[in-house]
Amino acid sequence: MAAKPKPKEKAPTGRVNSPKQLEALRAAIVARKNPKKPCIALCVGTGCLAYGCVDILQAFKNEITKQKLENSVDVRGTGCPGFCERGALLTIYPQGVFYQRVRIEDVPEIVNETIVKGRVISRLLYQDPNTKQHYEKEADVPFYSRQMRLLLDANSKIDPTSIEDYIGIGGYSALAKVLFQIKPEQVIDKVKKSGLRGRGGGGFPTGNKWQSTRDAEGDIKYVICNCDEGDPGAFMDRSLMEGNPHSVLEGMIIGAYAIGSHEGYVYIRHEYPMAVENVMMAIKQAESKGLLGTNILGSGFHFKLKVSRGGGAFVCGESTALMASLEGKVGEPRAKYVHTSEKGLYNRPSNLNNVETWANIPHIMLKGADWFSGIGTMTSKGTKIFSLVGKVNNTGLIEVPMGMKLRDIVFGIGGGIRDGKKFKAVQTGGPSGGFIPESHLDIAVDFDELTRVGSMMGSGAMIVTDENTCMVDMAKYFVNFLQEESCGKCLPCREGLKRMIQILTDITDGKGRDEDIELLERLAATLKDASLCALGQTAANPVLTTIRYFRDEYEAHIKEHRCPAGVCKPLITYSIINEKCPGCGKCVEPCPTKAITFVAKKQPVILDQEKCIKCGTCYDICNLKAVAIK
Amino acid sequence: MNKLVNLTIDGRKLQGEEGQTVLEVARDNGIDIPTLCYHEEIEPYGACRLCLVEVTKNNRSRLVTSCLYPIEEGLVVKTATERVISNRKMLMELLLARCQGVKVIEDMARKLGVDKPSFKPEYWEKNECILCGLCTRACAEVVGTSAISLVNRGVNREVAAPFLETAEDCIGCGSCVYICPTKCIKMEENGDTRTIVNWKATFKMQKCQKCGKNFAPVKQLEYFRKKLNLPEGFFDVCPDCR
Which of B49, B69, B152 shows the shortest C-beta gap to A530? Predict the structure, then answer.
């Protein structure tokens, strides 16, 4: 993305007052970097933090100093490359050697072998669990090779706390182009033409939203970034905000210019401490460089941005509840018959977009609407970031073009189901998304196809389940989550979810009634039709889709008091398969209630059903599969 | 007068003023739409959802809450379609399951053709409060005291004074008692005191210096005297004797 420097402009040390000066600064940054100089880039995102990456990073710095390599090797902490379960993740440039599951004790070896001698340590390479093949380069790993990382790619290339790194890879050139070459209306036309739809879940055309806010009457207008990501298992926005906060800011400044807004907010979860820290730092840096605040890049346009931290209520991700929370009120939604583009924050025209939506904007401005609309399907353009979690071999954050087959995501990128088990369903779209079964695995993943099969895009969570997952139990889990997160304002959501969880608990306890499935469906219809906000309107999706695709499991629980997946405790019993049990006694000691009695070697152990609490410890311990669940 | 807007409700061609809601126009014209959280003196809230109606615009029909939906030129409204009725019935079932023995709810349910909830009887509750928020909104919007509010989230939501203790800002006016649709806020008067039981607040009453009747809490009168800039001693005499 970096453009050639103009020869005469001197690189500014403080404020950047023109596009020329920005290019001069970029040229200076690029010139300082020697592309051949080895760089150890270690992920310091939240996932890898849990693997002790901060200590590992320090250990690398110490080792480099110890070996007197400070001048010939760079060490850099980067954002999240997405393959979190394989953390800590490390890439060594310029070769691009990709190491995973790096531990602090590996540090001296990596420096001695790979940095000094140029040898690859095969133990630290990614090995495909199915084919056992090793991969040296990140781009070749099946988890990455099928992705299209427009937004996430920079995460592993830059230090998110350095604005110079971002400028070095072409950052803020879209802003400079927009401010000096494109009129606000043309920016909106470009966004409309690109076909970009909101990534927060609704999928509303972004350009149209901007247009409404621009057209709305009022002197003061706001732009807001929604970083109140709260779906279980989802961390797309967190990773972008942590790993590349300037890309989001750049998108917001462009949006503000197009809409005619001079004030904006980033609403971000307090539970995302690193994202909060990085975006606050990014705002300060951008202000000091004159890329945010007054007279941006000498254009005369000004835009002030503030950070507001949310207290963690899931419902505050809903736009009207978010705005109420921003105003310091209780975060409860209101009806949107008058759109927030007309009356939003403080009753003024407000444009709210999700983190990922904002991050797409600089790319569209630089590479054009046609380029963007060339990616994806008829109705959904560009890429989408998903958090692929659950029972797949490769879990993590992925970015794929819209329209990729769900099967390719689960079995290609995800590498199929763990331990060779059978796929059952994938839930997309967060807690109020639906479960998609095997029969629909060949759908092209986009906004409309996901809705058609009863689920939704949501913000992009994908939870894969296998044959050992009970679908009634899963539906119960998500309804329970939503029941706890419902604000309680409107009757159907508050009372309806409470009744729904009672019915589902009865079913999983073996106390379901024949009429319960029909009652769940009637309740679901009212939740959908009568709830005030999207939380309630979509809350029944997990129940509706599991009834639609796995009705037999509901019926087995209700009619036969049987949990086919062997999950629902009141409906299952553990027993010892005498023919398989050699009486090794390995399960005796770990049993928390002493329900298993050792008889003698080569004689099966005895399990006392009275004492058994169905914890599953014996089942997990037995290598010979001599414990049965019925 | 605002601009007139033409719309159709249940086949009747009607006119309303710009800025009015569907519910207001319907009620002005004698069309009955059930509500529990609506009061004409208070900002509509949209919590009970009973006022759902089906509106059609540009050949697209959807359910909206009539207490909040602003009328538009050419809007077609149906207040009792099959979809509206079945949703209202389920809402009544949910209310009945929450509020066993609450007369206003039982009467309303009967009127809508619901006699008992389909949920297991062991889960039915005897809650008198329906969390419509009329009391808290009256307290904030009409009286201006905000002595009580809705606290907690979801199923734990309740109306309460701060920290579930005595409502210190309560002036004992009793607006919450009068406006509560299920009459679940209890007020007791005993000689020269008044207690609002739910908010654990007791007030000394002002005695009329002419007729001797205890006519209102001293705190309430003092609140209004200051708010309206009236002279001291203005409320020494009750309105009947003034």
Answer: B49
